[in-house]
Amino acid sequence: MVTAKIDIEKQVEYYMNLPYTMTIKYRSEQGGYYVAGYVELPDLTMTGDTLEEAVKELLSEREDWFETCLKLGVKIPLPVETPKYSGEIRVRMPPSLHQLLAQRAANEGVSLNQYMVTGLARTVGLDEGQKYKIGSK
Prior knowledge:
With 137 residues, this protein is α+β, with helices and mostly antiparallel strands. 46% of the residues lie in helices and 15% in strands.
């Protein structure tokens, strides 16, 4: 019996150290509240009046949740792997657009790559140099 308890404790520790993806959502109904959970663990969610309270509740509950699942034989999903991005993509476009972009880049005195990256960054709301570095990997 003691061996089984130690085994469960080790398994709980294993799951506690995995990089699960936390999500926090605001719900406006019933006066408004926050729901904190994990993408990979849809049955483990906690609420709070504030974002901090919901996260605190989630973090304090997860150890017991893992232990209960293990004792009941419920399969615990592993975290999803964060994709690795090389920073390189191949883009197909009409030759006329390619020509126009190349001409505009030349007029700006920058490479076509830098011109396109800057344009894409602006489109998604980043200022030049914010959270991306042109030409770096």
